[in-house]
Amino acid sequence: MYLVTFRLDPGEYDAEFHDLNDAIQAAAEGTDGYLGKRTWHAPESEEVLVVYYWESLDTLETFGAYSEHEEAKQRWTEWYDAYEVTVTEILDSYGSGFGDDADPPA
Fold first, then answer.
1. What is the pLDDT of residue 67?
2. How far is CA 20 from CA 24, 67, 68, in A?
3. Which domain holds residue 29?
4. CA-only gyration radius of the chain, Å
5. How far apart (Å, rounded) are the C-alpha atoms in residues 35 and 104?
6. In the 8-state DSSP scheme, what is residue 104?
7. Domain total for the chain?
8. Any transmembrane segments, and where (predicted)?
9. Is residue 105 in a domain?
10. Any idea what the CATH number is for the domain that residue 46 is in?
11. Rounded Cα–Cα distance for residues 38 and 31 (Å)
């Protein structure tokens, strides 16, 4: 499994951002191998952390080539003050106490 962590400092969102963001999310959900996402908001700042779960690197690369996703990457300065993307391969995962939350979101 792969995790893509998208850390962002939001700027100003407009209608065009929301339309593009919705299209990107629909594309992710329509991609075989997309396992879900989780979002966290830092209580002490505006920072947002979104973690996307992917079955394989191939499925992630398929999604990355989606035209709206490419457009958003080119236009990031219109909507974010800063961003960072980290791709991580999960080799092992363990723990207890989170119940259904321990698994990737459905």
1. 83
2. 6, 10, 7
3. 2-92
4. 15
5. 7
6. P
7. 1
8. none
9. no
10. 3.30.70.100
11. 17
Structural domain includes residue 21:
yes
- Alpha-helix residue ranges (DSSP H) falling in the chain: 15-29, 57-64, 67-74
Residues in the chain: 106
Whether this model's pTM surpasses 0.85: no
Does any domain span residue 45?
yes
Burial class (CB in 10 A: 0-12, 13-18, 19+), 68: middle
The answer to whether 99 and 38 have CB atoms below 8 angstroms apart is no
| Cα 84 from Cα 5, distance rounded (Å) | 8
Which pLDDT tens digit goes with each residue over 32-60? 999 999 999 988 888 999 999 999 999 99
Tokens standing for residue 27: 């594309």
In a 10 Å sphere around its CB, with 0-12 CB exposed, 13-18 middle and 19+ buried, how is residue 34 labelled?
buried
Nearest to 49 by CA among 84, 25, 20: 84
pLDDT at 73 over 70: yes
**97 assigned to some structural domain:** no
Q: Which two tokens stand for residue 52?
A: 């996307």
